[in-house]
Amino acid sequence: MENPITVEVTRGQLVESRHRGLAIVVDAEGKIVFSAGDVDAGVFPRSACKAMQALPLVESGAADAYGFGNRELALACASHSGEPEHVATAAAMLKAAGRDESVLECGAHWSSHQAVLIEQARTLDKPTALHNNCSGKHSGFVCTCCHTGEDPRGYAGFDHPLQQAIRAIMADLTGAVLSRDNCGTDGCSIPTYAVPLIGLARGFGKLATGSGLEPIRAAAARRLINACMAEPFYVAGTRRFCTKLMQVAPGKIFAKTGAEGVFCALLPDKGLSFAVKAEDGATRAAEAMIAALLARHFDEGSAEHTTLTGMSRHGMSNWNGLHVGTIRVTDVLFA
Amino acid sequence: MENPITVEVTRGQLVESRHRGLAIVVDAEGKIVFSAGDVDAGVFPRSACKAMQALPLVESGAADAYGFGNRELALACASHSGEPEHVATAAAMLKAAGRDESVLECGAHWSSHQAVLIEQARTLDKPTALHNNCSGKHSGFVCTCCHTGEDPRGYAGFDHPLQQAIRAIMADLTGAVLSRDNCGTDGCSIPTYAVPLIGLARGFGKLATGSGLEPIRAAAARRLINACMAEPFYVAGTRRFCTKLMQVAPGKIFAKTGAEGVFCALLPDKGLSFAVKAEDGATRAAEAMIAALLARHFDEGSAEHTTLTGMSRHGMSNWNGLHVGTIRVTDVLFA
């Protein structure tokens, strides 16, 4: 099945580049509201599913035992930019469990976001694992192990009890079989499993509705989603797309990006769940797609609709600030 | 016409992302040796055609008048990383013409390459136009104007005599009609014209062979191509793909990237000219494609063939240095 062209990048009066994509929206019962492309094909959710991977932190009681609030829970679901607040919060999470960054298995990297990187270059000799965009998730993993009495060493491995537990949760939520066959290694070294985009959307839907989940899981899921919506800066950072999406309608939109062009989102009040993947892995395409799909569910003329539509079709400027072209979703997303 | 999938990105045992592309190889007579995708569709060459845009610098006599050697000519054809040598050479070019960076119309930006950006952040308050990846091209433009007695002010504009001259050269080389209809504004504010990929490849072929060109243009073209092959660091920079490609077989490969997934290359000794475009604008796809096409024209088992093949199919590591997947060209490029 050919995935349709969902995003175009123009220059002058011509289309310069084209992105193909797959997209799905499901309702509270998991029924398809909108679909484009091969939504049954396996997609690695990458960081888009961090809220699912953070469930043990809450379900185990670790989050309560260590006194974590919305910021810590949002950071556990985050791909953050490595800004000072992100780094300090991850360090504080580890300290609460009596640990430090030496236990983190995510590796270190400079911020992927230019303004933050410039500041880091001026203040750091080199980045640590706390600066890794996944340090909140990994700190949550360590805290979960410490609280349950599991040895955190090797927590990123396929066979570690924590990853086994996460695998069972992901299978439960997405309805997909997860094994070594559809497992890859993520940027931060933990397992990532390819699941059909429709399964990913239905899984996120369950996080919002609690439908079919044990009460403890339903409560933990809603608490994590609410924490992200309450503290969107801690899910991403300054000028980041996830943060901006959630700021469009505070408390009404949950959104999380993943590497290689994945984006998931929720409108919890409407029981709607969204998932998109750019065939080629382009973040700019995934961002435009998710914004366009979200916009459709706000009233035309509302501030939310206007802002989201603007995030799905926006001008591009060059080094002199001149308008040179536009990134815009195609009519495929309005069918 | 659907463009074929030319590059796949794997993770674990699965394909995570797919790039479609168009590619063409022509011989010294401009005949098609290989073709994939819609090579008659208009493509903005962007920075890939800088060697064409640098022709007036040599043809006008400016390069000789100002004593420019291979490094200056390579920099005039470059999308450099803003390393100190690049910046100093652009400044020296302007100084030779009695000008300074205040005349540049390219705008300023931090280096797009992380290691250079970190060094810039530690040593600069902010970047200037000399740090712009196009500063060599723009310095060449200014030098051309100064030598011919043209006022360089407004040299980036569609109607400036220099851009009119470049438009005529590009039309001559590519065989395409260039007008406001297929004109866009490039990142550095000069006009860029969409031309069929096949015209771009044939135009580059003429640079190498001189076929059908006035002697002065043929000589200027060969001098620029030779300068780039002699000083590949000045065409891009440390660890950059253009530089590495030209270092594979010194004096035998010319290669130049352009934004939004364009790559052009020459094997002058074989009279072969190459052009590729990733449909989605991805640089990683264009790089793999051009390396694969070049590899086919070196003997299997040779060091050049091995290195180029490795640049067309290579592993990807995560933050911990673990192998997580592969970027690889598909069989489409070996049809």
3D structure, described in words:
- The structure is a homodimer of 335-residue chains.
- Chain A has helices at residues 50-53, 55-59, 62-65, 70-76, 84-96, 114-123, 135-148, 161-174, 197-209, 215-230, 241-248, 283-295, 303-312, and strands at residues 5-11, 14-26, 32-36, 42-43, 183-185, 191-193, 195-196, 254-258, 262-267, 272-278, 313-317, 323-329.
- Chain A is of the alpha+beta class and 335 residues long.
- In chain A, strands 1, 2, 3, 8, 9, 10, 11 and 12 form an eight-stranded antiparallel β-sheet that branches.
- In chain A, a hairpin with a 5-residue loop joins strand 2 (14-26) and strand 3.
- At the A-B interface, strand 2, helix 6, strand 5 and strand 12 of A face strand 2, helix 6, strand 5 and strand 12 of B.
What structural class do helix, strand and pairing data of chain A support?
A: alpha+beta
Distance between the termini of chain A: 18 Å
Mean pLDDT of chain A: 97
Return residue spans of chain A where pLDDT drops below 50 for at least 5 consecutive residues: none
* Overall form of chain A: globular
Helix content of chain A: 25-40%
Largest sheet of chain A: 8 strands, antiparallel
Biggest interface, chains and residues, is: A-B, 52 and 53 residues
Oligomer: homodimer
Would you report the number of β strands of chain A? 12
How much of the sequence lies in strands of chain A comes to 15-25%
| Individual helix count of chain A | 13
Cα gyration radius of chain A (Å): 19 Å
Give the H and E element order of chain A: EEEEHHHHHHHHEEEHHHEEEHHEE
